[in-house]
Structures are given as structure tokens and as C-alpha cells.
Write a structure and sequence with these properties.
By secondary structure, the chain is mainly alpha-helical. Helix content is 52%, strand content 1%. Strand 1 (239-241) and strand 2 (244-246) form a beta hairpin. The model has no long low-confidence stretch (mean pLDDT 95). Strands 1-2 form a two-stranded antiparallel ribbon. It has helices at 25-35, 41-48, 52-65, 79-88, 94-111, 114-123, 130-133, 136-149, 154-162, 165-170, 184-194, 203-212, 250-260, 262-277, 284-296, 301-309, 312-315, 327-338, 348-358, 381-401, 404-410, 432-443, 451-462, 488-499, and strands spanning 239-241, 244-246. The chain contains 24 helices and two strands.
């Protein structure tokens, strides 16, 4: 996963647009697809007239200012309360409530940006599986914790997640007592959450840490209720962690870890941020600089991301289109970028939850404690057709609702930069390639560079709706093609259906 052979050699200096390196539709989509879940056409047009550095500061500041999603009525219910609700209405079972939590997550994806992108990222870092701990209330509490800490202090985040009920249950911390220390959470704390596999810890460190975090087991005979500290179940033995001796407890574990292994933590977390936001092929020099920013900022997350997102490195052509979209990205990005109306009887959240689960990304329940590995795992042959068809389902529903919105989307579509202008109704037959190129550039991270494939897309857009002479520059005036013609929405629909199968569409 880590390599020093990245082709992206750009620096972390702030990206400043120039004639040779313009601020354009491609870069705007790159930004929004990576740090959010896509942008509407109006957001793209507004961004073309913005300064990228200012825009990124705004996106981060907005994310920091967001408060967590409202607590549902059942956010702190215990098992008896859920059982009573199901007795009153058999449809209100545990699956129903857990899906309600996932619907809230998707609603946040549609509405917001970086805060919710990071919530998804951290759910695949501090992994739990809602099907394991079972409680919908724990699911909410876990999600709330992720939202609260997305851009905050990573040390505090690590502390809080380790004694949260869903994590205690998921990794057996609720069974960790002085008489029977359980090593599960101690191992994952180092191996997956802070240091990386075999990176700066020993088996003895794990054993000693397990003893130091004993005692978080008190449930007060309330299934799915709060889990608190019971001093009588805590090991008071002296422990040796990273060469430090003492009667350490959970607070001490976190302090010792972040003092004795700060460089390793910073490098590990910044590598994960880099591979998620920039490229699966790492540039070690860039990661080292990010790690230093992380340390200098006392493990605050926001300064690292400000530095990265504003940089020439982030906007380098080698970074654009370098990451394979996850199932969530495929559906949510497309739906948000189109911003189409759909029939009211079509539940977009239910559709998305079920589709991404089938495609391998069950929200709030990754495949195991190591999380989704992503990249090429997202496009295995058994799910590729499902990715194509999910787009076609959305297109079909939007078509049922309003065919004219397909024409309206093309009109006003930015051609490249603000200076290049937009597509309008005056475009005619000799400019059909301009229209197709603008559409392809809008949905494909680097456009479609291969001339043969580009011409194929042009022919699909032309279709057989009009006689061929409608596209001939010297055609008689009444036969000149324009976007005002009745079949234009059908042409766009056909091209979008084709785009769903283009490999570049599945990159971001």
C-alpha cells in the first residue's frame, strides 16, 4: 500500500490557478468528489468563480461548525424498550431501527459535505459492525461520536471511542476484567487504530495494555444500556507499556501511547488520510510533511486536511481519477451531481442502503474489524454490472418524473472554465462535439481522451432520433440540430446510460 514511487511529485505548496494550470470543472469535481459526495451544477458554477483556497477553507469551516444529527427518540433505549416497541408494532424491529440510523447517515450525505465524508472515513477506521453489537441505540451513539470528532483532536477521538459502548461490546472490552484480561481491544488499538501492523509495539505491550484497560464492564443489569467503569474489576498490578512502568489505567494508556509513539501514530494516520483522499500510491515525502503538521498541531485533524486539500499535490493531474469509487460514491455522487427530481414513491435512501450493501458496502457494518479495503475490491466482476444498473435505475426514475429536466441539465452546463462559457440553446450541429465533450468532462474525472471512444460517445448522443443531415454543418436551416429539438432529452439519457459503463466513470 505504501510506496515511494508515486508519479505525483507536486508539493504541498498552495495551488494557485494559472493559464497553464487553470481552475476548471475537472478540478472542482475532483475536490467535491473527494472531500464531499459531489457537487450540484450550481455549486460547480459558483466554484468556477471562487478562489480555490478560500473555497476549501469555507468547506472545512462549515464542516467544523456542523452539529451532530439530532438524537432519535430511541437513541438511548435499552433492549427492553426496543422489545416493547416491537411488541406494540411488529414492523418496528431491530432491522427497522438500524435502517433508520443508516437513512439518517444518507440524509447527511445528501445535505452536507466534508463532515459526512469524514464520518464515512472514520467508520472504516474505528470499525464496529452494527450487526455484531445489535443495538440500534449503540449504532446512533457510535455515529454521533464519529460526527462529533471528524475534524477534531485525534487523541481525544481515540480516547472516547475506546470506552464507547458499541466499541466495548464489539471488541470485548465489556468482558475485560482483572481476573480475565481480554486482549482484543488492546491489539486493535495498536494494530488498526493508531500504529499499524507490527509497527512499534510488542505482544507484551498488548498484554500489559489489556490489563491497564480492565474494568469498563459495568452494565448495571441493563442490556444495551450504558457501560461504565467498575474499579473492583480493574487490575491494580504494575504494567510495563512501551518501557514505561506503573499502575497504569485507561487514561495513562492513551497518554503513554501518544507520547511514546507520536511519530508512528502521525505517519500511520496521515498515510490513511493520503490513500483515502489522494491516491492509493503514496508519496512518503508528502506524508512525512503531513505527519509533522499533525504533531505540531497536537494531533488536530483539521490543519492536516487544510494543508493537503489546498496543495498543488492534491490538485496535480496524477491525483485526479486515481481512486476507484466505492458503491456509496457511485450512487450518491451521481445522484447529487444530477440533482434530478424523482417520483415521491421512490425511497432513495432505501434504494441506496440496499444497493450499496449488495455491492459490498454495508453502511456502519464493514466486512470485519479491518474494514473495507476498497480500490479494486469495489469492482470485482460479480458487482460491476450492479454498479451500471444502479445508475440506470436512477435515470429511469428521473425520466419517469420529468423528461425535460434532462434538457435543462445540459443547458447552462459549464464547458470548462468560467471563461469558456456554458452550453446554451444556440448551439447547433457543428457544435454537437462541444456538447458531448462538456458532458463527458463533467462526469469523467479526466474526460474521455481516446479519440475512438470519444467518437463512439458522440455517435451514441446523436443516435437515430434525427436524420443524419441534422448534424451536417451545411444542412438546410430547418434541419439544423439544436438543444431545442424535442429529442434532446432522449439523447442525453442515452449518453448517460452509456457513461455508466465507461471505466473512467468509476474513478474519482
Amino acid at each position: 500500500m505504501i510506496s515511494d514511487t508515486s508519479c505525483n511529485t507536486a508539493s504541498l505548496d498552495v495551488y494557485i490557478p494559472s493559464a497553464q494550470n487553470p481552475w476548471n470543472v475537472s478540478k472542482i469535481h475532483h475536490l467535491y468528489r473527494r472531500v464531499a459526495f459531489g457537487a450540484t451544477k450550481n455549486q460547480v458554477k459558483a466554484a468556477l468563480n471562487s478562489d480555490p483556497e478560500t473555497l476549501i477553507d469555507t468547506l472545512i469551516d462549515q464542516a467544523i461548525a456542523l452539529v451532530p444529527s439530532p438524537e432519535p427518540l430511541w437513541g438511548f433505549w435499552d433492549k427492553d424498550q426496543f422489545d416493547a416497541a416491537e411488541m406494540a408494532n411488529e414492523d418496528n424491529n431491530l432491522v427497522f431501527y438500524r435502517n433508520e440510523g443508516k437513512k439518517q447517515m444518507l440524509s447527511d450525505f445528501w445535505q452536507h459535505g466534508l463532515r459526512d465524508r469524514l464520518t464515512l472515513f472514520w467508520s472504516n477506521h474505528f470499525v464496529t459492525e452494527d450487526e455484531v453489537y445489535a443495538s440500534p441505540a449503540y449504532q446512533y451513539q457510535y455515529y454521533n461520536l464519529l460526527q462529533f470528532h471528524t475534524l477534531g483532536n485525534f487523541k481525544q477521538f481515540t480516547y472516547d471511542i475506546g470506552i464507547a459502548a458499541p466499541m466495548l461490546v464489539y471488541l470485548n472490552g465489556d468482558q475485560n476484567t482483572k481476573d480475565r484480561p481480554n486482549e482484543n481491544y488492546a491489539r486493535e488499538l495498536y494494530e488498526l487504530f493508531t500504529l499499524g501492523v507490527d509497527n512499534g509495539y510488542t505482544e507484551n505491550d498488548i498484554l500489559e495494555t489489556a490489563k491497564a484497560i480492565t474494568g469498563w464492564v459495568e452494565k448495571n443489569d441493563i442490556p444495551w444500556g450504558p457501560i461504565t467503569f467498575d474499579a473492583s474489576k480493574f487490575s491494580t498490578d504494575s504494567k510495563n507499556i512501551f518501557g514505561q512502568n506503573g499502575n497504569w489505567d485507561y487514561d495513562d494508556v492513551i497518554d503513554i501511547l501518544f507520547t511514546q509513539r507520536q511519530n508512528r501514530i502521525a505517519n500511520f494516520i496521515c498515510t490513511k488520510l493520503y490513500t483515502y483522499f489522494v491516491s492509493p500510491t503514496c508519496n512518503d515525502a508528502i506524508i512525512n510533511q503531513m505527519a509533522q503538521t499533525f504533531i505540531d498541531g497536537n494531533f488536530e485533524i483539521a490543519p492536516v486536511l487544510r494543508q493537503l486539500f489546498k496543495s498543488e499535490h492534491f490538485f496535480d493531474p496524477e491525483a485526479i481519477g486515481a481512486i476507484i469509487k466505492s458503491p456509496v460514491d457511485v450512487i450518491v455522487n451521481f445522484y447529487k451531481e444530477m440533482n434530478f427530481s424523482i417520483p415521491t414513491d421512490f425511497d432513495i435512501n432505501d434504494f441506496t442502503i440496499n444497493t450499496v450493501r449488495v455491492l459490498g458496502q454495508n453502511l456502519l457494518s464493514p466486512i470485519d474489524v479491518e474494514g473495507w479495503q476498497g480500490d479494486e475490491e469495489w469492482i470485482s466482476p460479480d458487482v460491476l454490472i450492479g454498479r451500471w444498473e444502479s445508475i440506470r435505475v436512477l435515470l429511469g426514475r428521473a425520466w419517469m418524473e420529468d423528461t425535460e429536466q434532462f434538457r435543462d441539465f445540459i443547458l447552462g452546463l459549464p464547458i470548462g472554465t468560467a471563461a469558456d462559457g456554458e452550453i446554451d440553446t444556440t448551439m447547433q450541429a457543428d457544435e454537437v462535439t462541444v456538447v458531448v465533450k462538456a458532458i463527458l468532462d463533467y462526469f469523467l474525472p479526466r474526460g474521455l481522451q481516446d479519440p475512438t471512444l470519444f467518437n463512439e460517445a458522440v455517435e451514441i448522443f446523436k443516435g437515430d432520433i434525427y436524420p443524419s443531415n441534422y448534424y451536417e454543418p451545411d444542412a438546410i436551416a430547418p434541419n439544423i440540430w439544436t438543444l431545442d429539438l424535442g429529442g434532446a432529452p432522449n439523447q442525453f439519457l442515452a449518453l448517460l446510460s452509456h457513461i455508466a459503463e465507461i471505466p473512467e466513470f468509476h474513478l474519482k
